[in-house]
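Q: Hi! First time doing this. I have a protein sequence and I read that you can turn it into a structure. Is that right? Here it is:
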Amino acid sequence: MIRTFQARLATLSNPSISLSRTFCRNHGSSITHVAGTGVMCSHLAVSTNTTTRNRIRTLWSDAVLSTKKCVPCNTKDLRTLTEEAANQLMPQVSGWDLVNDGGTLKLHRSWKVKTFTKGLEFFQEVANVAEAEGHHPDLHLVGWNNVKIDIWTHSVGGLTENDFILAAKVNGLDVQHLLS
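A: Yes, that's right. Below is the predicted 3D structure, encoded as structure tokens:
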């Protein structure tokens, strides 16, 4: 995928467009900022369609998930994502797995922490983000050092964009000092 991304960037036909890339130190992903366009995204493509902004369009979203805010779960317009739509968002939440648990799609991720208390500190970091977003994951401390998180929208019985937003924000946490 990175080679495809680099190849597409190399085909930009407008030399006046300035691109800068920011790498996320913990996860190896990158965000590309397109100067003068207001476009910030994790995946770019070039289009010959002049209706797109400077012939650049995003493949998934104009804003990276971690910059978005979860919408209230009691919103009437909140619908579950199809498996196809969820698979399209998966590259934006590196390290997470898409699992089907008895017909319910969920995001799942595991970490190993240094100690039991480091696991509790990890959960506190995640809880702070979850409270700020009003979207709460299932947290599991298995054994003394295995941290597992399942994210899905209980109120609709499946995955919504909220789940991907929360997963992206969890990915952005500075928790390396807690991990083994």
